[in-house]
Amino acid sequence: MSQRLTEFLIGLLFGVGLLLSGMTDPGKVIGFLDLAGNWDPSLALVMGGAILVGIFAFAFAKRRTTDFFGGAIRWPTSSAIDRRLVIGSVVFGAGWGLAGFCPGPALVSLGAGVPQAIAFVGAMLAGMAIFEFLERRR
Amino acid sequence: MTIDWIAFTPWSSLVGGILLGLASALFIIVNGRILGISGIVGGLLRPRTGDVGWRVAFLLGLLAAPVLFGLVANVPSPRIDAEWGTVILAGLLVGVGTRYGSGCTSGHGVCGLSRLSPRSLVATLSFMGAGFLIVYGVRHL
User: Fold this and answer.
1) Residue B7 lies in a domain
2) ipTM reported for the complex, 2 dp
3) Domain map of chain A by residue range?
């Protein structure tokens, strides 16, 4: 199986997981983030289910030196816990709470033709472009 | 706090979550990459030779998911309460924030926590905390 095909299929699997889990419904996401209201705990199970599988998979992957195609496994290089990480994550969380979309579900909803998702992804790409612009000026 | 038992979907959310974990597992084992959506998209705005094809292939799969899902089941229709201006502002914040924070719900929340990264734990607590606070502010203040 070609490398491009596996990447496509894994993207597809991830998208199906997002649809099944309820993550693509902003109403459900905000229902989870609304601790003080009528709380929908579903997304805790999404995270739990994903990590349940992930914890074994990543332990296995750490003991390997190459991927299925013989290439190097590209682990994240930074372990820094700094202001950039925290402030960036807080800004992301604020946006997530405002509309109920995070990047993956927004892209899946874009694929489904949801008008607000198209606007959200456009704005998200603009935000990412602003980051690139500011990084290049540093 | 009261629990919304009517909205609670334990089984589909658990199975969906397991699929997310499985996809992340396959991506690191088969393709040697961290499955982080914001990083995969963000990298396209900084294109380098040999670093574009895999991103496009993965994202096409993600975009195709509702189309293929729709062939076997009803694609759930999203409930979006936010107004257009809020949606745009939210998109901008998510774009800038995920790039400065080097990840989102998938890269930090699923992959990072699964590989027991303290950096990802801090990021996840930060964005979840901000999400809880914003929703509290919007709905209860």
Assistant:
1) no
2) 0.97
3) 3-137
